[in-house]
Amino acid sequence: MKNELYQSCTLCPRECHADRLSGKKGACGENSVLRVGRAALHMWEEPCISGTRGSGTVFFSGCSLGCIFCQNRELSYGGLGKEISEERLAEIFLELQEKGAANINLVTGEHFVPGILEGLTLAKEQGLTLPVVYNSSGYEKPETIRLLKGSVDIWLPDFKYWDDELGLRFSGVPDYRERAMKAIDEMVCQTGACVFDEEGYLRKGVVVRHLLLPGHVKNSREVLRYLHDTYGNRIYISIMSQYTPLSKDLPFEELNRKVTRREYERLLDYALELGIENGFFQEGEAAKESFIPDFNGEGV
Description:
Layout: H1 2-7, E1 35-42, H2 47-50, E2 55-60, H3 73-76, E3 82-83, H4 86-98, E4 104-107, H5 113-125, E5 132-136, H6 142-147, E6 154-157, H7 164-171, H8 176-191, E7 195-196, E8 202-211, H9 217-231, E9 236-240, H10 261-274, E10 279-281
Parallel strand pairs: 2-4, 4-5, 5-6, 6-8, 8-9, 9-10
Antiparallel strand pairs: 1-2, 1-3, 7-8
């Protein structure tokens, strides 16, 4: 199955049909060989995921979406990362478990799903018992998500854009909203309502992240409205203010600044008006480069 899925790749909605198995790079910028930039305990996820123990995050190279404002751009499309085997990936999962991780957190791995599945299978055969988190852009295919059924416990997708024009301008895709809606629906169908353990860690369920972009409160309001109207308290919604302009020369003027406190407060007020109860919000100064991991190959 692995060879077939990489040979004419349609794992992501771009469906580039690249023969990644032969070494060609797909729309994600990667061939079929796993590449990872960092594997370590991460303390800056939502409280129910990182907690005090930390989330065992594995940051994969490449990305199927490629947002112009990506804070992980060095890894997503900057060429960073070390090639590893599926056997080494399994070892990494077990090493993170030994370090006390609360879970295994797969960051931007949709284009490596076949290899990830192999690594998870090997690790579970060798004693991996932690919940598995799938941390993604939300630009996914339900068919690919279904491949992960039974292997992923917690889904942590973004829902970036309600306005497809923003998706086209900032991420180069014309159909982000529809893709995210279908992907998240499949995730919720697989896990159902959120389940927590006695320590407050999420063991099963869906947390949808939404990053407020400067100048685009209206887009964010529509995302929150849809998620709450559709799923209510079956999911958690993480409302993020941490947008960080890493460059001052992005081609869209509004993206060259941080989100203002007033913009974020307006969005939080709207969330309260909607009646959102299961949610997370960010306090203090979240838009800092210090929140961005150093992709130096740690743990790989």
